[in-house]
Amino acid sequence: MFADFLKRLVQPAPAPLNDDDARLALTALLVRVARSDGHYDPEEIHRIDRIVCTRFGLVPEAAVALRHEAEALETEAPDTVRFTRAIKEAVAYEDRIGVIEALWSVVLADGARDAQEDSLLRMVSNLLGINDRDSALARQRVEKAL
């Protein structure tokens, strides 16, 4: 189903993603982070839907449809490094902190931090060019907002 999309992601120098593909890649990364601890909780699913609605200006039904598509993509997708590279190329640096905040929001949605989630967030932050300090500050902002 996602053969062309995945083929573009695994190229040595993939072309920048168009807006629709960037939305799908970011949503799939949110799903991957939510699933990283082995539990895909309703709170995390709801949080992903809210993030997608807000970030992309979608109505709830469209956000759910995008999440379903992202869930399917995430199961077929290559390693997280390629996802992150595609997002890094599609998202301006200034907006990447917002991506990290969205990821932390999903991690914290179920009320529990897991070592696997922390590890994945650390890797993704670094791949996006966000240092550990800025990621920690993003996490703290999310914690305060919850």
Automatic annotation (TrEMBL):
Return the CDD domains for the record.
terB_like_2
Q: What is this protein called?
A: TerB family tellurite resistance protein
Taking every annotated instance into account, which residue ranges of this chain make up the domain Co-chaperone DjlA N-terminal? 23-140
Short name of one Pfam family: TerB
Q: What parts of the sequence cross the membrane?
A: none
Question: What species was this sequence derived from?
Answer: Thalassovita mangrovi
